[in-house]
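Memo subject: From amino acid sequence to discrete backbone structure tokens
Keywords: amino acid chain, backbone geometry, structure tokens, three-dimensional fold.
Body of memo: The sequence and its backbone structure tokens, given next.
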Amino acid sequence: QQEKLLGRLFGQEGPRGGAAWEDALVRSAWLKGVHSMLQHQPALHLLCSTGSMDVIFTLQGDPSLFVASAASQLLVHMLTFSLEPETCKALSTKDCDWPVCAQMIVKHIQESLQSGSASRIEQSLKLLSSLFGSCFGSCYAAWTEVLWLDIAKQIESFLLQETVQAQPVLASLLLNVARSPVFCGTEGSFWALVTSALEHLTPVQACPLAVGLLKLCKCPQDVRIQALTVLLQPMDCILRAASQPLECAGLLDESVSDPVTVQSLLSSKTSCAGLLCQTLAHLEKLLSLKNLRVDLPCVSLLRSLMTILQICSGSLSPASPLGSTISRNLINCFRVQKSALDVLATLSEKKDCHTLLGSVFDVLLAYLQSPNTNPTVLKKTFQATSKWLVYLQELSSSNSQWQQTEKILEDVFVVLQKRLCSPCWEVRDSSLEFLTAMVKCLKDQKEFRQCLLSSEVLRLTENLLEDPESYVRASAVTAVGHLALVTCFAPESPVVGNQYNKEVSIVAKLQEILSTDSEGFPRRAVISIFTKWLREGCTGQLEDTEQFVSKVIQTVECDLDWEVRLGGLELVEVFCSQTICQLAQCPYAPVSSAVTSSTPQKELLQVFCRAKLFGFLFGSLCDCDKPVGQRACDVLVGLRGHFYPTSTLENPQEIEDTPAGRGIAWLQRTLRQGSLAQNFTMDGGVEVDFQDPESMMLALGAIDLLELHDELNKSSDHVEESPQSLLQDILAAVGTIEDNEVDCY
């Protein structure tokens, strides 16, 4: 069977000999078939002894990108697989012991690199890049080093040839070679080649290489500094072009490549924004790294970012000819604004930027106040502002800069009030998100609370609970929920009577949204806020919390949105955990932990039954949306672990000896069928009483919740999509003739 299959796969009588070969899917499937057979050495030998290798080489240039990529990956796999037995030997590509398959592939690579054909050169460079990118282990070091030394001179020549249009692939290849274990040392011709690449590649081509080098642990320090210089050149050019003579220094002392190249790109309308967006994206990633092995000039970089943002908004008009050209290219360029604001937000985490704090907020407030700020840019501005406000808070607490903090917060709340009334729903939505972010970070700051309570923000936010746009209503719910932690539930909140009335009003309003809003987003937001309040102990004494949870459960169990029902189960889980801890006087015990025998189990069960928890939990086990059933089962398993901590479970065979047991036995059978009715009534009219503590204690011990848990977590496609099932489907569709049986084998 194997021999016949190999013959059909590789021979001319196979699919590549017919008209079907014109279909890219057939060519791709053939490559996958060859790939899957490479685990057998006989298949590899047969493949190399037929004309199939030439077919694979040809498919590298297939017009279908999927086929071309599959062909390249197949050649990489063939080369590594054929050399596996030889990995510990010092090989030469001209060694007669070099495997035949490897010799064929290397010869093809060398011929392609020397062919003068741009497409063939690019195909081989991509293959080499994939090869070095996949050979990270030290076992590959011997033959990958030999291979690199064999092609290094040719690669170097490509860097100096303007006629070769494969520079982006060259950058990728060099980076993958740099990552391989062969070049762990800091000396050698390879790093000189990398330096040459940084000098000769265009800024757009060199930037990805530079960023990759900066992330490497083993990169020589001089190469790392050169890579950083390449990356910062556009930012340096912007800063110098916008500054008056002698006004401020740039980011760099000297350039790696000719600065005229960068100036030319920034002077072009078509390339200016692209180059800056690429540079800014790379900078954002680098700034997020914790162990960057080179110092970034954060202050100068921050100054450059503010310059870019001011040029884009039109608030800065550089006097130099280059600056004026760049200004015309960047005015109202939303792409660059968003990228610059992302980097600006990341820079807030750098502690040495405090000298420019006032200037940063001047730029941010100008964007927040301007009616010309695009909604998506405004959203990014809000995000950056919230980050810098946190930095301002930390700085104020250590430097006593209270007046500056208060003035900035006042300005922020003034503009926030206007933005909450915007006719654009995206602006209202991002304004609410910004408010929520501020409350999360600054709610403990005295100046923030004062500015908040003295503004109109609270009233405007509550008004937006009735916004016509559901996204805005959802964001308003979240904002109101977090604001309540400051205005209602905080110990230092205002007068007790007003505080209580406000609390009741907010809870009632959110419960109304949960039960009546026609859209799912606001209802999801409500259940999330209720859960947060419960976690933070904002719902009063146990009796009040019990009534609160019971009312929420009765609302969400009928909700058509499965995420709302899932949120209700999360609320129940938090309530169970807190109630167990409260009654057991165990402040940190999770719901699934076994507690001491002194725990008042009867009182716990009574609380859970009065809150109607069990009806919701057992009903959710049969929910048509699997995540709901899984979460309900998790909660019930946790509860059983509490009430039966030492495996003292009831025998399911004995539960029918009592009236309650007959109901539980029916419940267990029904749960297995996954079709629990809403009225929970068994055949014959006997009801399962989910509010009876003894029945629920019996149910937790008798029902095999672990078996249910396994069933709920088992994917249905383990049967329908098994290999055997798929092959049976194929045979059923095309018939069981001998050739089809061979293919399926």
Q: What stands out?
A: The chain is about 70% helix and 0% strand. Residues 102 and 591 are 60 Å apart (CA to CA). The two ends are 7 Å apart (CA to CA). The longest helix spans residues 375-399.
